[in-house]
Design goal:
Blueprint lengths: L15 H16 L21 E5 L2 H4 L12 H8 L13 H15 L3 E5 L2 H4 L9 H16 L3 E7 L5 H7 L6 H17 L5 E6 L1 H10 L25 H23 L1 H4 L2 E7 L2 E4 L4 H24 L4 H7 L8 H7 L6 E4 L3 E6 L11 H5 L1 E4 L8 H15 L4 E5 L4 E2 L7 H19 L4 E7 L13 E2 L3 E3 L8 E3 L1 H10 L6
Parallel strand pairs: 1-2, 1-12, 2-3, 3-4, 4-5, 5-7, 6-8, 7-10, 10-12
Antiparallel strand pairs: 8-9, 11-13, 14-15
The structure holds 2-acetamido-2-deoxy-beta-D-glucopyranose (3 copies).
One 2-acetamido-2-deoxy-beta-D-glucopyranose binds next to helix 16.
Protein backbone atom coordinates (compact mmCIF):
# COMPACT_ATOMS: atom_id res chain seq x y z
CA UNK A 1 0.00 0.00 0.00
CA UNK A 2 2.87 2.26 0.92
CA UNK A 3 2.50 5.47 2.86
CA UNK A 4 -0.49 5.60 5.10
CA UNK A 5 -0.68 9.33 5.40
CA UNK A 6 1.53 10.91 2.87
CA UNK A 7 2.34 14.58 3.07
CA UNK A 8 -0.24 17.01 1.67
CA UNK A 9 -0.70 16.57 -2.01
CA UNK A 10 0.39 19.09 -4.52
CA UNK A 11 -0.96 18.70 -8.00
CA UNK A 12 1.98 18.24 -10.28
CA UNK A 13 2.00 18.58 -13.99
CA UNK A 14 3.86 15.82 -15.73
CA UNK A 15 7.26 17.13 -16.61
CA UNK A 16 8.10 14.79 -19.38
CA UNK A 17 10.51 16.97 -21.26
CA UNK A 18 12.98 16.88 -18.37
CA UNK A 19 12.53 13.19 -18.17
CA UNK A 20 13.44 12.71 -21.80
CA UNK A 21 16.72 14.42 -21.10
CA UNK A 22 17.43 12.24 -18.11
CA UNK A 23 16.62 9.09 -20.01
CA UNK A 24 19.13 10.19 -22.61
CA UNK A 25 21.76 10.59 -19.90
CA UNK A 26 20.90 7.38 -18.12
CA UNK A 27 23.40 5.01 -19.73
CA UNK A 28 26.16 7.40 -18.72
CA UNK A 29 24.91 7.56 -15.17
CA UNK A 30 24.48 3.84 -14.80
CA UNK A 31 27.80 2.88 -16.30
CA UNK A 32 29.74 5.18 -14.09
CA UNK A 33 31.06 3.10 -11.21
CA UNK A 34 32.60 6.14 -9.62
CA UNK A 35 29.27 7.72 -8.72
CA UNK A 36 29.66 9.36 -5.38
CA UNK A 37 26.68 8.51 -3.25
CA UNK A 38 27.21 9.72 0.27
CA UNK A 39 26.85 6.41 2.07
CA UNK A 40 29.51 4.22 3.57
CA UNK A 41 29.94 1.00 1.67
CA UNK A 42 30.33 -0.91 4.88
CA UNK A 43 28.44 -4.14 4.30
CA UNK A 44 27.75 -6.47 1.42
CA UNK A 45 25.36 -9.21 0.60
CA UNK A 46 27.88 -11.70 1.97
CA UNK A 47 27.20 -10.33 5.44
CA UNK A 48 23.69 -11.83 5.23
CA UNK A 49 23.04 -15.55 5.64
CA UNK A 50 22.87 -17.39 2.29
CA UNK A 51 19.21 -18.26 2.97
CA UNK A 52 18.24 -14.60 3.43
CA UNK A 53 15.82 -13.53 0.68
CA UNK A 54 15.99 -10.19 -1.11
CA UNK A 55 13.04 -9.20 -3.21
CA UNK A 56 10.72 -6.45 -4.27
CA UNK A 57 6.97 -6.19 -4.58
CA UNK A 58 3.79 -4.84 -6.09
CA UNK A 59 0.09 -5.66 -5.62
CA UNK A 60 -2.59 -6.67 -8.08
CA UNK A 61 -4.70 -3.54 -8.35
CA UNK A 62 -1.64 -1.32 -8.33
CA UNK A 63 0.29 -3.02 -11.12
CA UNK A 64 -1.84 -5.35 -13.25
CA UNK A 65 -4.18 -3.07 -15.17
CA UNK A 66 -6.56 -5.01 -17.43
CA UNK A 67 -9.12 -4.18 -14.77
CA UNK A 68 -12.11 -4.94 -16.95
CA UNK A 69 -10.53 -7.61 -19.09
CA UNK A 70 -10.94 -11.35 -19.32
CA UNK A 71 -13.74 -11.62 -16.79
CA UNK A 72 -12.35 -9.60 -13.89
CA UNK A 73 -14.97 -7.69 -11.90
CA UNK A 74 -14.40 -4.59 -9.74
CA UNK A 75 -12.95 -4.68 -6.25
CA UNK A 76 -13.85 -2.09 -3.64
CA UNK A 77 -10.70 -0.19 -4.63
CA UNK A 78 -11.84 0.02 -8.27
CA UNK A 79 -15.09 1.53 -7.04
CA UNK A 80 -13.28 4.01 -4.82
CA UNK A 81 -10.80 5.06 -7.51
CA UNK A 82 -13.66 5.75 -9.89
CA UNK A 83 -15.77 7.57 -7.30
CA UNK A 84 -13.61 10.70 -7.40
CA UNK A 85 -13.05 10.57 -3.61
CA UNK A 86 -9.50 9.27 -3.96
CA UNK A 87 -6.28 10.96 -4.98
CA UNK A 88 -7.14 10.74 -8.69
CA UNK A 89 -6.16 8.10 -11.20
CA UNK A 90 -7.10 4.45 -11.11
CA UNK A 91 -5.75 0.99 -11.76
CA UNK A 92 -7.58 0.39 -15.05
CA UNK A 93 -4.31 0.25 -16.98
CA UNK A 94 -1.52 1.34 -14.62
CA UNK A 95 1.71 -0.57 -15.44
CA UNK A 96 -0.19 -3.27 -17.33
CA UNK A 97 1.73 -6.13 -15.81
CA UNK A 98 -1.17 -8.36 -16.82
CA UNK A 99 0.14 -8.15 -20.36
CA UNK A 100 3.78 -7.41 -19.62
CA UNK A 101 4.59 -9.95 -16.92
CA UNK A 102 7.20 -11.69 -19.05
CA UNK A 103 9.05 -8.46 -19.61
CA UNK A 104 8.80 -7.65 -15.90
CA UNK A 105 10.14 -11.03 -14.84
CA UNK A 106 13.05 -10.45 -17.17
CA UNK A 107 13.77 -7.17 -15.38
CA UNK A 108 13.65 -9.01 -12.06
CA UNK A 109 16.23 -11.44 -13.40
CA UNK A 110 18.40 -8.53 -14.54
CA UNK A 111 18.26 -6.98 -11.08
CA UNK A 112 18.96 -10.35 -9.47
CA UNK A 113 15.92 -10.63 -7.21
CA UNK A 114 15.49 -13.82 -5.18
CA UNK A 115 11.77 -13.23 -4.81
CA UNK A 116 8.81 -11.24 -6.08
CA UNK A 117 5.96 -10.30 -3.77
CA UNK A 118 2.66 -9.80 -5.52
CA UNK A 119 -1.01 -10.23 -4.71
CA UNK A 120 -3.80 -12.10 -6.39
CA UNK A 121 -6.86 -10.15 -7.42
CA UNK A 122 -9.70 -12.09 -5.80
CA UNK A 123 -12.20 -10.65 -8.26
CA UNK A 124 -10.06 -11.73 -11.19
CA UNK A 125 -9.81 -15.30 -9.96
CA UNK A 126 -13.37 -15.61 -8.62
CA UNK A 127 -15.39 -12.78 -10.15
CA UNK A 128 -18.42 -13.13 -7.88
CA UNK A 129 -16.28 -13.47 -4.79
CA UNK A 130 -17.41 -17.06 -4.39
CA UNK A 131 -18.31 -19.88 -6.70
CA UNK A 132 -17.06 -20.23 -10.25
CA UNK A 133 -13.38 -19.77 -10.99
CA UNK A 134 -12.52 -17.52 -13.94
CA UNK A 135 -10.34 -19.67 -16.25
CA UNK A 136 -8.57 -16.59 -17.63
CA UNK A 137 -7.70 -15.45 -14.12
CA UNK A 138 -6.39 -18.89 -13.26
CA UNK A 139 -4.34 -18.90 -16.42
CA UNK A 140 -2.81 -15.51 -15.70
CA UNK A 141 -1.60 -16.39 -12.23
CA UNK A 142 -0.34 -19.78 -13.42
CA UNK A 143 1.59 -18.02 -16.19
CA UNK A 144 3.08 -15.44 -13.84
CA UNK A 145 4.06 -18.04 -11.25
CA UNK A 146 5.57 -20.34 -13.89
CA UNK A 147 7.52 -17.47 -15.40
CA UNK A 148 8.94 -16.61 -11.98
CA UNK A 149 9.77 -20.20 -11.05
CA UNK A 150 11.40 -20.94 -14.38
CA UNK A 151 13.73 -18.00 -13.74
CA UNK A 152 14.49 -19.06 -10.18
CA UNK A 153 12.45 -16.32 -8.52
CA UNK A 154 10.32 -17.25 -5.49
CA UNK A 155 6.73 -16.05 -5.54
CA UNK A 156 5.54 -14.54 -2.24
CA UNK A 157 1.80 -14.22 -2.63
CA UNK A 158 -0.73 -12.08 -0.76
CA UNK A 159 -4.40 -13.04 -0.96
CA UNK A 160 -6.12 -9.85 0.19
CA UNK A 161 -4.58 -6.46 -0.36
CA UNK A 162 -7.42 -3.96 0.31
CA UNK A 163 -9.23 -5.25 -2.79
CA UNK A 164 -12.28 -7.19 -1.70
CA UNK A 165 -14.57 -8.12 -4.60
CA UNK A 166 -17.25 -5.43 -4.82
CA UNK A 167 -19.80 -8.24 -5.24
CA UNK A 168 -19.24 -9.34 -1.63
CA UNK A 169 -19.31 -5.78 -0.34
CA UNK A 170 -22.67 -5.31 -2.03
CA UNK A 171 -24.09 -8.64 -1.00
CA UNK A 172 -23.45 -8.59 2.75
CA UNK A 173 -21.17 -5.69 3.61
CA UNK A 174 -17.89 -7.54 3.07
CA UNK A 175 -15.62 -7.59 6.12
CA UNK A 176 -18.25 -6.35 8.59
CA UNK A 177 -20.12 -9.64 8.16
CA UNK A 178 -18.95 -12.99 9.55
CA UNK A 179 -19.94 -14.44 6.17
CA UNK A 180 -16.62 -13.19 4.85
CA UNK A 181 -14.76 -15.86 6.82
CA UNK A 182 -16.13 -18.80 4.81
CA UNK A 183 -15.80 -16.98 1.50
CA UNK A 184 -12.20 -16.01 2.23
CA UNK A 185 -11.39 -19.55 3.24
CA UNK A 186 -12.88 -20.91 0.01
CA UNK A 187 -10.90 -18.38 -2.04
CA UNK A 188 -7.72 -19.28 -0.16
CA UNK A 189 -8.37 -22.95 -0.82
CA UNK A 190 -8.60 -22.32 -4.56
CA UNK A 191 -5.22 -20.59 -4.38
CA UNK A 192 -3.58 -23.31 -2.28
CA UNK A 193 -4.96 -26.04 -4.52
CA UNK A 194 -4.15 -24.39 -7.85
CA UNK A 195 -0.85 -22.62 -7.07
CA UNK A 196 0.46 -24.22 -3.88
CA UNK A 197 2.63 -26.74 -5.69
CA UNK A 198 4.82 -23.75 -6.64
CA UNK A 199 4.00 -21.05 -4.09
CA UNK A 200 5.56 -21.62 -0.66
CA UNK A 201 4.95 -18.23 0.98
CA UNK A 202 1.37 -17.13 1.51
CA UNK A 203 0.20 -13.96 3.20
CA UNK A 204 -3.51 -14.04 3.95
CA UNK A 205 -4.45 -10.45 4.75
CA UNK A 206 -2.30 -7.39 4.21
CA UNK A 207 -2.27 -4.74 6.95
CA UNK A 208 -5.57 -5.53 8.70
CA UNK A 209 -4.77 -2.76 11.21
CA UNK A 210 -4.60 -0.03 8.59
CA UNK A 211 -7.42 -1.55 6.53
CA UNK A 212 -9.71 -1.30 9.58
CA UNK A 213 -8.57 2.11 10.72
CA UNK A 214 -8.59 3.70 7.28
CA UNK A 215 -11.68 2.01 5.87
CA UNK A 216 -13.97 1.75 8.91
CA UNK A 217 -12.93 4.39 11.47
CA UNK A 218 -11.63 7.35 9.47
CA UNK A 219 -13.35 6.17 6.33
CA UNK A 220 -11.04 7.81 3.84
CA UNK A 221 -10.23 4.57 2.02
CA UNK A 222 -12.60 1.89 0.74
CA UNK A 223 -15.13 0.85 1.69
CA UNK A 224 -15.38 4.39 3.17
CA UNK A 225 -17.36 3.52 6.26
CA UNK A 226 -17.41 5.74 9.33
CA UNK A 227 -19.88 7.55 11.54
CA UNK A 228 -20.08 11.12 12.81
CA UNK A 229 -18.39 12.81 14.56
CA UNK A 230 -15.52 10.56 13.50
CA UNK A 231 -14.02 10.13 10.11
CA UNK A 232 -12.10 12.40 7.84
CA UNK A 233 -14.78 12.37 5.24
CA UNK A 234 -18.54 12.08 5.25
CA UNK A 235 -19.47 8.44 5.07
CA UNK A 236 -22.87 7.24 3.96
CA UNK A 237 -22.70 4.25 6.29
CA UNK A 238 -20.65 2.66 9.02
CA UNK A 239 -19.94 2.84 12.72
CA UNK A 240 -16.50 4.11 13.76
CA UNK A 241 -17.03 2.90 17.33
CA UNK A 242 -17.57 -0.73 16.50
CA UNK A 243 -16.70 -1.65 12.93
CA UNK A 244 -12.90 -1.30 13.07
CA UNK A 245 -12.89 -3.91 15.85
CA UNK A 246 -15.34 -6.14 14.05
CA UNK A 247 -13.37 -6.01 10.81
CA UNK A 248 -10.06 -6.96 12.41
CA UNK A 249 -11.86 -9.74 14.27
CA UNK A 250 -13.11 -11.12 10.97
CA UNK A 251 -9.69 -10.65 9.33
CA UNK A 252 -8.07 -12.67 12.12
CA UNK A 253 -10.67 -15.42 11.89
CA UNK A 254 -10.45 -15.50 8.09
CA UNK A 255 -6.66 -15.66 8.29
CA UNK A 256 -6.74 -18.40 10.91
CA UNK A 257 -9.36 -20.45 9.05
CA UNK A 258 -7.29 -20.34 5.87
CA UNK A 259 -4.09 -21.20 7.76
CA UNK A 260 -5.76 -24.10 9.50
CA UNK A 261 -7.08 -25.41 6.21
CA UNK A 262 -3.61 -25.17 4.73
CA UNK A 263 -2.07 -27.02 7.65
CA UNK A 264 -4.67 -29.76 7.46
CA UNK A 265 -4.90 -30.34 3.72
CA UNK A 266 -1.82 -28.92 2.01
CA UNK A 267 1.17 -28.47 4.27
CA UNK A 268 2.32 -32.11 4.20
CA UNK A 269 2.44 -32.12 0.42
CA UNK A 270 3.40 -28.55 -0.32
CA UNK A 271 5.65 -27.62 2.64
CA UNK A 272 4.81 -23.92 2.47
CA UNK A 273 3.97 -21.41 5.17
CA UNK A 274 1.09 -19.03 5.83
CA UNK A 275 1.55 -15.65 7.47
CA UNK A 276 -0.06 -12.25 7.76
CA UNK A 277 1.40 -8.79 7.32
CA UNK A 278 1.08 -5.83 9.62
CA UNK A 279 1.67 -2.14 9.14
CA UNK A 280 4.35 -1.63 11.77
CA UNK A 281 4.38 1.96 12.88
CA UNK A 282 7.14 2.93 15.20
CA UNK A 283 5.56 5.06 17.90
CA UNK A 284 7.71 7.79 19.38
CA UNK A 285 6.72 9.86 22.44
CA UNK A 286 6.02 13.48 21.58
CA UNK A 287 7.75 14.74 24.74
CA UNK A 288 9.86 13.13 27.44
CA UNK A 289 6.91 13.09 29.84
CA UNK A 290 5.79 9.90 31.58
CA UNK A 291 2.32 10.48 30.16
CA UNK A 292 3.53 10.40 26.58
CA UNK A 293 5.59 7.28 27.29
CA UNK A 294 2.41 5.62 28.55
CA UNK A 295 0.50 6.85 25.52
CA UNK A 296 3.10 5.21 23.27
CA UNK A 297 2.44 1.90 25.01
CA UNK A 298 -1.28 2.31 24.40
CA UNK A 299 -0.68 3.11 20.73
CA UNK A 300 1.25 -0.15 20.35
CA UNK A 301 -1.50 -2.08 22.11
CA UNK A 302 -4.26 -0.66 19.95
CA UNK A 303 -2.60 -0.59 16.56
CA UNK A 304 -0.01 -3.38 16.62
CA UNK A 305 -0.72 -5.79 19.48
CA UNK A 306 -4.36 -5.73 18.34
CA UNK A 307 -3.24 -8.13 15.60
CA UNK A 308 -0.18 -9.77 17.15
CA UNK A 309 -1.54 -10.55 20.60
CA UNK A 310 -4.37 -12.81 19.34
CA UNK A 311 -1.97 -14.52 16.92
CA UNK A 312 0.47 -15.32 19.70
CA UNK A 313 -1.75 -15.60 22.78
CA UNK A 314 -5.25 -16.17 21.41
CA UNK A 315 -6.77 -13.01 22.89
CA UNK A 316 -6.80 -9.23 22.56
CA UNK A 317 -4.60 -7.12 24.85
CA UNK A 318 -6.22 -6.48 28.23
CA UNK A 319 -6.00 -2.74 27.85
CA UNK A 320 -8.05 -2.88 24.67
CA UNK A 321 -10.75 -4.76 26.50
CA UNK A 322 -10.69 -2.12 29.22
CA UNK A 323 -10.95 0.88 26.90
CA UNK A 324 -13.17 -0.53 24.15
CA UNK A 325 -15.36 -2.69 26.41
CA UNK A 326 -18.09 -4.61 24.68
CA UNK A 327 -17.31 -2.95 21.37
CA UNK A 328 -14.33 -5.30 21.10
CA UNK A 329 -15.55 -8.74 20.00
CA UNK A 330 -14.69 -11.79 22.08
CA UNK A 331 -13.09 -14.97 20.75
CA UNK A 332 -14.88 -18.14 21.76
CA UNK A 333 -12.62 -20.85 23.17
CA UNK A 334 -12.57 -22.60 19.80
CA UNK A 335 -11.81 -19.38 17.92
CA UNK A 336 -9.10 -18.48 20.36
CA UNK A 337 -7.27 -21.73 19.79
CA UNK A 338 -7.79 -21.41 16.04
CA UNK A 339 -6.18 -17.97 15.99
CA UNK A 340 -3.42 -18.67 18.50
CA UNK A 341 -0.28 -19.78 16.71
CA UNK A 342 -1.90 -19.45 13.27
CA UNK A 343 0.82 -17.32 11.67
CA UNK A 344 3.96 -19.09 10.47
CA UNK A 345 5.55 -15.69 9.92
CA UNK A 346 4.80 -11.99 10.25
CA UNK A 347 5.19 -9.63 7.32
CA UNK A 348 6.53 -6.27 8.50
CA UNK A 349 5.50 -3.20 6.55
CA UNK A 350 7.36 -0.13 7.68
CA UNK A 351 7.30 3.39 6.37
CA UNK A 352 6.47 5.68 9.25
CA UNK A 353 7.02 6.84 12.76
CA UNK A 354 4.06 8.34 14.48
CA UNK A 355 4.56 10.70 17.36
CA UNK A 356 2.20 10.11 20.23
CA UNK A 357 0.88 12.63 22.72
CA UNK A 358 -1.20 11.74 25.75
CA UNK A 359 -4.82 12.87 25.42
CA UNK A 360 -6.67 11.83 28.58
CA UNK A 361 -9.74 13.80 27.55
CA UNK A 362 -10.55 11.50 24.66
CA UNK A 363 -11.08 8.61 27.08
CA UNK A 364 -13.68 10.64 28.93
CA UNK A 365 -15.91 10.96 25.91
CA UNK A 366 -18.92 8.70 26.03
CA UNK A 367 -18.91 8.05 22.31
CA UNK A 368 -15.48 6.86 21.17
CA UNK A 369 -13.92 5.46 18.04
CA UNK A 370 -10.76 3.35 17.84
CA UNK A 371 -8.52 6.40 17.91
CA UNK A 372 -10.28 7.90 20.96
CA UNK A 373 -9.94 4.55 22.73
CA UNK A 374 -6.16 4.96 22.53
CA UNK A 375 -6.38 8.13 24.59
CA UNK A 376 -3.70 9.81 22.54
CA UNK A 377 -3.13 12.07 19.64
CA UNK A 378 -1.03 10.40 16.98
CA UNK A 379 0.70 12.31 14.26
CA UNK A 380 3.34 11.96 11.66
CA UNK A 381 6.02 14.62 11.90
CA UNK A 382 7.34 15.61 8.56
CA UNK A 383 10.89 16.09 9.75
CA UNK A 384 11.06 12.63 11.27
CA UNK A 385 8.98 10.35 9.06
CA UNK A 386 11.24 7.39 9.80
CA UNK A 387 14.89 6.45 10.14
CA UNK A 388 16.72 3.19 9.50
CA UNK A 389 16.86 2.77 13.26
CA UNK A 390 13.05 2.74 13.30
CA UNK A 391 12.95 -0.34 11.12
CA UNK A 392 15.51 -1.97 13.37
CA UNK A 393 13.33 -1.11 16.39
CA UNK A 394 10.13 -2.60 14.95
CA UNK A 395 11.98 -5.80 14.03
CA UNK A 396 13.40 -5.87 17.58
CA UNK A 397 9.91 -5.29 18.94
CA UNK A 398 8.68 -8.55 17.44
CA UNK A 399 11.67 -10.34 18.89
CA UNK A 400 11.40 -8.91 22.37
CA UNK A 401 7.64 -8.80 22.85
CA UNK A 402 6.46 -11.77 20.79
CA UNK A 403 9.17 -14.39 21.14
CA UNK A 404 11.06 -13.75 17.91
CA UNK A 405 8.76 -15.20 15.23
CA UNK A 406 10.09 -15.52 11.68
CA UNK A 407 9.55 -12.21 9.87
CA UNK A 408 9.91 -10.79 6.40
CA UNK A 409 10.23 -7.07 5.84
CA UNK A 410 7.62 -7.09 3.09
CA UNK A 411 7.43 -3.36 2.34
CA UNK A 412 9.82 -0.50 2.89
CA UNK A 413 10.76 2.23 0.49
CA UNK A 414 11.05 5.90 -0.26
CA UNK A 415 8.43 7.93 -2.13
CA UNK A 416 9.60 10.52 -4.58
CA UNK A 417 7.68 12.56 -7.12
CA UNK A 418 6.71 10.29 -9.96
CA UNK A 419 8.51 12.57 -12.38
CA UNK A 420 11.73 12.78 -10.36
CA UNK A 421 15.07 12.09 -11.92
CA UNK A 422 15.93 8.53 -12.76
CA UNK A 423 19.06 9.19 -10.80
CA UNK A 424 17.20 8.62 -7.52
CA UNK A 425 20.11 9.12 -5.16
CA UNK A 426 17.91 9.67 -2.07
CA UNK A 427 16.29 6.27 -2.66
CA UNK A 428 19.70 4.60 -2.97
CA UNK A 429 20.74 6.19 0.33
CA UNK A 430 17.46 5.09 1.88
CA UNK A 431 17.90 1.48 0.76
CA UNK A 432 21.47 1.41 1.93
CA UNK A 433 20.40 2.68 5.35
CA UNK A 434 17.42 0.38 5.81
CA UNK A 435 19.09 -2.77 4.53
CA UNK A 436 21.89 -1.95 6.96
CA UNK A 437 19.30 -1.68 9.74
CA UNK A 438 17.97 -5.14 8.86
CA UNK A 439 21.52 -6.47 9.09
CA UNK A 440 21.91 -4.88 12.53
CA UNK A 441 18.66 -6.51 13.68
CA UNK A 442 19.78 -9.84 12.27
CA UNK A 443 23.13 -9.61 14.04
CA UNK A 444 21.31 -8.90 17.29
CA UNK A 445 19.39 -12.17 17.01
CA UNK A 446 16.18 -11.25 15.17
CA UNK A 447 14.58 -13.98 13.13
CA UNK A 448 14.22 -11.81 10.03
CA UNK A 449 14.34 -13.87 6.85
CA UNK A 450 13.94 -11.44 4.02
CA UNK A 451 13.74 -7.86 2.81
CA UNK A 452 11.50 -6.61 -0.01
CA UNK A 453 11.68 -3.10 -1.39
CA UNK A 454 8.47 -1.31 -2.19
CA UNK A 455 8.04 -1.17 -5.10
CA UNK A 456 9.47 -3.04 -8.05
CA UNK A 457 7.92 -0.73 -10.62
CA UNK A 458 6.31 2.64 -10.32
CA UNK A 459 2.69 1.67 -9.75
CA UNK A 460 -0.67 3.27 -9.02
CA UNK A 461 -0.17 4.33 -5.40
CA UNK A 462 -3.31 3.58 -3.43
CA UNK A 463 -3.20 6.82 -1.46
CA UNK A 464 -1.41 9.04 -3.90
CA UNK A 465 -2.39 7.89 -7.36
CA UNK A 466 0.29 8.77 -9.86
CA UNK A 467 1.72 11.76 -7.96
CA UNK A 468 4.46 9.91 -6.11
CA UNK A 469 6.12 6.59 -6.66
CA UNK A 470 8.58 4.19 -5.07
CA UNK A 471 9.72 2.02 -7.97
CA UNK A 472 13.12 0.70 -8.90
CA UNK A 473 11.83 1.16 -12.45
CA UNK A 474 10.10 4.18 -13.88
CA UNK A 475 7.09 3.42 -16.08
CA UNK A 476 6.40 6.00 -18.76
CA UNK A 477 2.63 6.37 -18.71
CA UNK A 478 2.72 8.64 -21.74
CA UNK A 479 4.24 5.91 -23.85
CA UNK A 480 1.60 3.55 -25.31
CA UNK A 481 4.07 0.72 -24.63
CA UNK A 482 4.47 1.78 -20.99
CA UNK A 483 8.20 1.36 -21.32
CA UNK A 484 10.13 0.65 -18.11
CA UNK A 485 13.37 2.50 -17.34
CA UNK A 486 15.78 1.43 -14.61
CA UNK A 487 16.50 4.02 -11.98
CA UNK A 488 19.81 4.32 -10.22
CA UNK A 489 18.23 2.38 -7.34
CA UNK A 490 17.65 -0.62 -9.63
CA UNK A 491 21.30 -0.63 -10.58
CA UNK A 492 22.44 -0.13 -7.00
CA UNK A 493 20.23 -2.98 -5.75
CA UNK A 494 21.44 -5.19 -8.57
CA UNK A 495 25.08 -4.54 -7.77
CA UNK A 496 24.41 -5.18 -4.11
CA UNK A 497 22.55 -8.43 -4.84
CA UNK A 498 25.28 -9.65 -7.15
CA UNK A 499 27.92 -8.94 -4.52
CA UNK A 500 29.55 -6.29 -6.67
CA UNK A 501 30.84 -3.00 -5.41
CA UNK A 502 27.97 -0.60 -4.93
CA UNK A 503 28.46 2.96 -6.00
C1 LIG B 1 -22.55 2.04 16.80
O1 LIG B 1 -22.81 0.81 17.44
C2 LIG B 1 -23.02 0.92 18.86
C3 LIG B 1 -23.14 -0.47 19.44
O2 LIG B 1 -24.05 -1.23 18.72
C4 LIG B 1 -24.25 1.77 19.10
O3 LIG B 1 -24.44 1.94 20.49
C5 LIG B 1 -24.06 3.12 18.44
O4 LIG B 1 -25.24 3.88 18.55
C6 LIG B 1 -23.74 2.95 16.97
N1 LIG B 1 -23.41 4.23 16.39
C7 LIG B 1 -23.93 4.64 15.24
C8 LIG B 1 -23.49 5.98 14.76
O5 LIG B 1 -24.72 3.96 14.61
C1 LIG C 1 13.67 11.70 15.38
O1 LIG C 1 13.84 10.35 15.73
C2 LIG C 1 14.98 10.05 16.48
C3 LIG C 1 14.95 8.57 16.83
O2 LIG C 1 14.76 7.80 15.73
C4 LIG C 1 15.01 10.87 17.76
O3 LIG C 1 16.24 10.65 18.43
C5 LIG C 1 14.84 12.33 17.44
O4 LIG C 1 14.73 13.05 18.65
C6 LIG C 1 13.58 12.55 16.61
N1 LIG C 1 13.40 13.94 16.27
C7 LIG C 1 12.23 14.56 16.45
C8 LIG C 1 12.18 15.98 15.98
O5 LIG C 1 11.27 14.03 16.95
C1 LIG D 1 19.70 -6.64 21.19
O1 LIG D 1 18.96 -7.68 21.79
C2 LIG D 1 18.88 -7.60 23.21
C3 LIG D 1 18.17 -8.85 23.69
O2 LIG D 1 16.91 -8.99 23.07
C4 LIG D 1 18.15 -6.33 23.60
O3 LIG D 1 18.09 -6.21 25.00
C5 LIG D 1 18.88 -5.13 23.01
O4 LIG D 1 18.15 -3.95 23.26
C6 LIG D 1 19.05 -5.30 21.52
N1 LIG D 1 19.88 -4.23 20.99
C7 LIG D 1 19.48 -3.43 20.02
C8 LIG D 1 20.47 -2.40 19.57
O5 LIG D 1 18.39 -3.50 19.50
Amino acid sequence: MAEYCFEPKKKEGKNMSNLGLIIGLLPLLLNSTSRAVAVADDYSRNDFPPSFIFGSGTTAYQVEGAAMEDGRTPSIWDTFAHSGDGPGGNGDVTSDEYHKYKEDVKLMVDVGLDAYRFSISWSRLIPNGRGAINPKGLEYYNNLINELISHGIQPHVTLHNFDLPQALEDEYGGWVSPKIIEDFKAYAEVCFREFGDRVLHWTTVNEPNVFAMGGYDMGFVPPQRCSPPFGKTKCSKGNSSTEPYLVVHHCLLAHASAASLYNKNYKDKQHGSVGISIYMFRFVPFTHSKQDAKAVERAYQFLINWILHPLVFGEYPKLMRKNAGSRLPIFTKAESSLVKGSADFIGIIHYQNWHVMDDPQSLMMENRDLVADVGAKMMMLKENVTTPESLQRVIEYLKQVYGNPPTYVYENGLPMKRTSLLEDVPRVEYMHGYIGAVLDALRNGSNVKGYFTWSFLDVFELLDGYHSSYGLFYVDLNDPNLKRYPKLSARWYSNFLKGKATF
